[in-house]
Amino acid sequence: MNKKMWFYIIKRLLLGILTYLLVVTVTFWVMQMVPGGPWTREKALSEATIEILNRKYGLDQPLFIQYIRYLGRALIFDFGNSFKFKGREVVDVIKDGFWLSFRLGFIASLLALGAGLFLGTYAATHQNKFFDRAIMVLTTASVAVPSFVASLIILFVFAVNLRWFPATPVNADPITPYILPIIAESLYPTAYITRLTRSSTLDVLGQDYMRTAKSKGVRPSRVLLKHGLRNAVTPVITYFGPMFATIITGSLVIEKIFQIPGIGQHFYSAITVRDYPMIMGTTCLLALLLIVFTLLSDIAYKLVNPRVDFD
Amino acid sequence: MKHNPLSFQINTEKFSFASESEKRGTNLMRPNSTFFVDGLKRFAKNPVAMVSFVFIFLVVLAVFIIPLFYPYKFNEILCFRYGDVLDSKFTYLRPFEYAPKEIEAMENGVFVPPHILGTDKEGHDYFICLIIGARTSLIVGFFAAIIVLVIGGVIGALSGYIGGKFDLIVMRIVDVIYSLPDILIIILFSASLKAVFDGNQGGFLSQLGSGFVAIFIVFALLYWVGMARLVRGQVLTLRKQEYVMAARANGASTARIVFKHLIPNSMSVIIISAALQIPSAIFTESFLSYLGLGVQYPTPSLGSLASAAQSFITVPNSPKLYMFLIPAITICLIVLSLNLLGDGLRDAFDPKTQK
Fold first, then answer.
1. Which residues pair with B119 in a beta bridge?
2. Is the ipTM of this complex over 0.85?
3. Which of A10, A68, A85, A192 sits 20 to 30 Å CA-CA off B149?
4. Does A153 fall in a domain?
5. How does residue A171 score in pLDDT terms, banded at 50, 70 and 90?
6. Could you report the per-residue pLDDT of B187-215, keeping only the tens digit for each?
7. What average pLDDT score do residues B64-81 get?
8. What CATH number does the domain containing A149 carry?
9. Which range marks the domain in which residue A261 is found?
10. Count: domains in chain A
11. Is B217 exposed, middle or buried (0-12, 13-18, 19+ CB in 10 A)?
12. Chain B neighbours among A 225-264 (CB < 8 Å)?
């Protein structure tokens, strides 16, 4: 940890805080655009009631004052109560959902990393053989499939037709209902990591030190793992950090399709029932999680790779 | 003339005129060709890119020509052709199936065009919905790419050209925007824009649909940053190139440098990068439409068609499965071939990948 490293970390922290404040600001002003205040109900409230409620929640203040207050509350993650879940704080609702999304995303990203590294290395060492060609075609094609299409097709094949897995979560069963969503979440990153690994391994295989190691009589598997993969893995790490951050904050589409009560599902349902505190809270918290995990992965990346220069 | 062996004078008798074939040997090895023609030749040799190009060309042709002569309109509820009563017999027809009233009309000698892909829940002809849906997706992708190209291009070029404090500030803004969670912001925008439009029906923007406008706003606000970085980088590196300096030293005018050197060397990279925004925008649109935040009913998009038909996927062996599969596969094919086309163009026209 030298001076440059600390400088980098501080710079990234400041950038992260700035980004969070920007997200909070954008959410506040976008929500101001939406017609109808928080008291718009099917049964109209009386003028007097609205006035009392406005005073109670500080909505009678000028917009700018409201904005500053909101900013202050967003910094301590106080987004008030959810409209939909009566009497529950937004943060509490989100917390449960996040824990579920986090676990699913964690497993999915590990799966993607393992499968991607293996398939990519195998394809690179068997270049232009049938398996390599097949992997290239499959990964190219799968990058063009929207995640809702992929998830629905997985659901259709394995849950509806083959009936190997239940289509929706079953309370008593902690494992099987989550297998399909994990696979669905890991599809795209697996394809991406496979391609990255393949191309960087191909680069590395042509290097002089690989030939040297081979000519010294090092076992082929050891050459590949110790000298090859170690150098080929750098672009994968670069991709893995932000990918991990995205995947653990839950996928809206996949959680909707497999009916998993994760954070993405909460966000979606908040939008459909126009639960504004929920929308604002989820946006801000998801943004914060993304920022924090991207930051952590960037810093870890710089620590692992001393050769990378600090911009 | 006797030649002194010690003389330095050249003996002209030892020389003869070069023959025509010898003259040809000093020519350049290949005919003179421009960068653009070279690129086209390379592109034509790439079968994958050519197939993608032909596919996209046919799709674009189809989505703009078929609606001109197709007997049904995408927003036409078919039963109203046979009276003012809503008739549920017109909904969910199978491909080439006719509703009872249509059979009756045919028995009376009226020609009823077939429903190639049947009808949907409201009794629209499904084939024309698909065509219009694909058109919507392509239009969204195209205009989103144009927005990114213009905004990112102008800001990036200015930033690279002016430099100094301006460049520093712009690049910090770019950094912050770059780290914004794009999907969240898109959803936030489209959800709230939807609420705004629902409250004010009939306006031009509300006819376009919240998803449309949200996608354009988001591309205008968020996605220009990648393009701005790219253009700025191009401007900065090209200004320092030796061939630009050489051209200037040879007395080339600024216009000549710009049009002969800067534009050909940077435009291909920039335009290809903009072209690759098209599939990404189509992806985003289908995602939003799937969530019900995309283009407004009754305008169909591939995402909303797939979304409307997704319930058939939870029923084993549903005969309506094609209503999901066709729009879904169309999205995949369009995005795939646009990606491959972009890659092919990059291989053919990017100066850095030339061998």
1. B125
2. no
3. A192
4. yes
5. low
6. 888 777 777 776 665 556 666 666 677 77
7. 82
8. 1.10.3720.10
9. 96-269
10. 1
11. middle
12. 252-253, 256
